[in-house]
Amino acid sequence: MSKRINILAIETSCDDTCCSVISDDIILSNIRNTQKVHGNYGGVIPEIASRNHQDNISKVVNSALRASKIKKKDISAISYTYGPGLKGPLLVGSMFAKGFALGLNVPIIAVNHLHGHIIANFIDKPHPRFPFLCLLVSGGNTQIVKVSDYNKFELLGQTLDDAIGEAYDKIGKLLGFKYPGGQKIDYYSQFGNENKFKFPKAHVYNYNYSFSGIKTAIKYFLQDKTHKFIKENIQDLCASIQKCLLGMLLDKFILAIKDTKIKDIAISGGVACNNGLRNMLTDISSKMDLNLFIPDPQYCTDNAAMIAKLGYIKYLDGDFSDINIDVEPDLKY
Ligand code: KG4
């Protein structure tokens, strides 16, 4: 019987300490430890994130190994995120991955976090066919990417300032929600009237985005409003804000779909958990006769299963990394 390929993957690019084990293309475990402490500060504090990764990483790796029932001696390679992300958190994951790999005498596979998010669409079946268009929406990125192969990515458009997740979280803070507020806005939206309040949409050239203006517009809108007003109108406010944010997001994505004539479309990143976005895309896909792919929510937010999946693909290609490879906080495609 041929030996199974077992990859242990680590992801620590921001505030989630994650580990996953994949065996012959099947995800056996996917553990994610979210650092709740950042909620007290209204955003991720890099130094605190690094220290928490140091405290959490052994426990998270052991849980992932236990859940997978794979023994350390049977691990074929370690894949990990080497960028983009916060430098300190990336260093914790990278050092752990390298030390673990050296101890086990197995190769390392350095993975680009953005590629991981996109390739998350291949974890479950059915998956998109190349070329497909991916809308990558997270706390750090808002991008439209043409994907022609597992390692061929063309950035068609992106945000010129805040990412959409960042806008959700900053607006959430203005509404009084703890960080990250994106999920709360999405939750209250379902009960509200999306036409009650009107907020301005930013129009940017080509397939690019700008989300900082709407955040400022809402800040000014709320500055003379009482807590009572916000509380009484929270559902309508959230629904109107979500309509505006998702409208901007989808206008450009639809433009790219029409221009490229690509029929397979996918989304990924933490904001891909948004119910409003999922519903709107499902509607658009049926009207435009598109094939829509959305990863399971556990593979949308930062996770190590996507790093394991891409690690597995790279392992089959013999695409290993040198042990001296450094982290790259500003890594692009
Ligand atoms: O991909 P992710 O876990 O981390 C990175 O930013 O890389 O994404 C986190 C982002 C946060 O901004 C969070 O508010 C947003 O995803 N998010 C949502 C929802 N769930 C998570 N935004 C809107 N609606 C949601 N349901």
Number of helices: 10
Coarse structural class: alpha/beta
What percent of residues adopt helix (DSSP H or I)? 40-55%
CATH topology of the largest domain: Nucleotidyltransferase, domain 5
Overall strand count: 10
What is the top-level CATH class of the largest domain?
A: Alpha Beta
- Helix/strand order: EEEHEHEHEEEHHHHHEHEH
Cross-sheet strand order for the largest sheet:
3-2-1-4-5
Keywords:
2 domains; 333 residues; binds 5'-O-[(R)-(carboxyoxy)(hydroxy)phosphoryl]adenosine; globular; 5-stranded mixed beta sheet; single chain; 10 strands; alpha/beta; Nucleotidyltransferase, domain 5
3D structure, described in words:
By secondary structure, the protein is α/β, with parallel strands linked by helices. It has 2 domains: 6-118 and 300-316, ATPase, nucleotide binding domain (Nucleotidyltransferase, domain 5, 2-Layer Sandwich); 127-294, ATPase, nucleotide binding domain (Nucleotidyltransferase, domain 5). It has helices at 46-68, 87-104, 113-119, 164-174, 182-189, 212-222, 227-232, 234-260, 275-288, 305-316; strands at residues 6-11, 16-23, 26-34, 77-83, 108-112, 132-137, 142-149, 152-158, 264-268, 291-293. The strands form 2 sheets. It has a 5-stranded mixed sheet with strand order 3-2-1-4-5, with helices on both faces. It has a 5-stranded mixed sheet with strand order 8-7-6-9-10, with helices on both faces. The longest helix is centred in the C-terminal third of the chain and has 27 residues, at 234-260. The protein starts with 5 loop residues before the first strand and ends in a 17-residue tail after the last helix. 5'-O-[(R)-(carboxyoxy)(hydroxy)phosphoryl]adenosine is lined by residues 14, 138-140, 165, 168-169, 180, 182-183, 186, 269-271, 273-274, 301-302. The site of 5'-O-[(R)-(carboxyoxy)(hydroxy)phosphoryl]adenosine has 18 residues, from helix 4 and helix 5.
